[in-house]
Specification:
This protein has 279 residues and is mainly alpha-helical. 76% of the residues lie in helices and 0% in strands.
Length: 279
């Protein structure tokens, strides 16, 4: 009798323990499952791994033409933004749309994990891969493009980390207007185009009218490039040296722009994200 009564209690104990797992454990469990599915998707994996390695070689002709460190540091900022757009933004947009169409997000939402945990877990693999590949890109780019040692290495790190995190809610917001994984190839284009303009890759900011350049400087990609340039060379967009407290004042302004975008994007996702498949 005692043994019979204790057996169900013993069975319930692990279930209680499982049911009271910490949010961090749930996040890691879901992120591990997302990583497994990402590794099985060869197209996404190739995009995430090979493209960041190839991008520095695209800028090799610029380096061979005798461009100075300022131009190459700008090019490095552009490369980082392009990698973040493909590895984080586009991959996550496709992933969230696919999970929503397969009703995976809806099923996960009925479980123990909160909405934020479900969405954040999907982003963890892409953010980890982006961090590793940007490190690889930097290791390739410095000797290949003959770049100097960064003057304030913390600024590019913080700017890139905040920029990568910002792309997560932007991918979720874009998923709202994306019906299928295939249509993600079209719906991603407006944000990518604006982001590329913000880097100055299409038209340098110095060649734009002042009012338009000030507007472009508010695009999320512009502060990322500015922080990479400021942290790497300690210069402003015009190439003039920035020293002392002016470095941190300029960096604080760029970080503030990124934080405002992040807050607005998270607010939009919290209110408007579509968990149901689009008809």
């Amino acid at each position: 009798m005692t043994a019979a009564a204790s057996a169900p209690a013993a069975d319930r104990a692990p279930r209680r323990a499982h049911g009271h797992r910490l949010p961090g454990h749930r996040l890691l469990g879901l992120a591990r499952a997302e990583m497994t599915m990402l590794l099985r998707n060869r197209m996404q994996l190739v995009t995430a791994v090979l493209m960041p390695i190839a991008v520095p070689f695209l800028y090799l002709p610029i380096a061979r033409q005798g461009s100075g460190p300022a131009q190459l540091a700008n090019a490095l900022g552009m490369m980082f933004v392009i990698v973040l757009l493909f590895v984080v933004y586009y991959n996550l947009l496709s992933t969230y749309v696919a999970r929503r169409q397969d009703l995976v997000l809806k099923r996960l939402r009925t479980g123990e994990a909160s909405d934020a945990t479900v969405l954040a877990a999907g982003a963890v693999p892409a953010l980890l891969i982006a961090a590793v590949m940007i490190g690889v890109m930097t290791a390739i780019s410095v000797p290949l493009l003959d770049l100097p040692t960064p003057q304030h290495p913390l600024l590019p790190v913080v700017g890139l980390a905040l920029g990568a995190v910002l792309l997560v809610p932007l991918a979720l917001a874009t998923a709202n207007i994306t019906r299928t994984v295939e249509s993600a190839q079209v719906t991603c284009l407006p944000l990518m185009a604006v982001a590329v303009i913000g880097t100055g890759a299409a038209v340098p900011l110095s060649l734009m009218p002042d009012w338009f350049a000030r507007l472009v400087s508010l695009v999320p990609s512009a502060p990322i490039v500015a922080l990479v340039r400021l942290g790497w060379l300690g210069v402003d967009p015009a190439g003039d040296p920035v020293t002392g407290s002016a470095v941190w004042a300029d960096a604080g302004l760029q970080l503030l722009i990124l934080v405002v975008w992040l807050v607005l994007a998270c607010w939009f996702v919290r209110l408007r994200f579509r968990w149901e498949p689009r008809a």
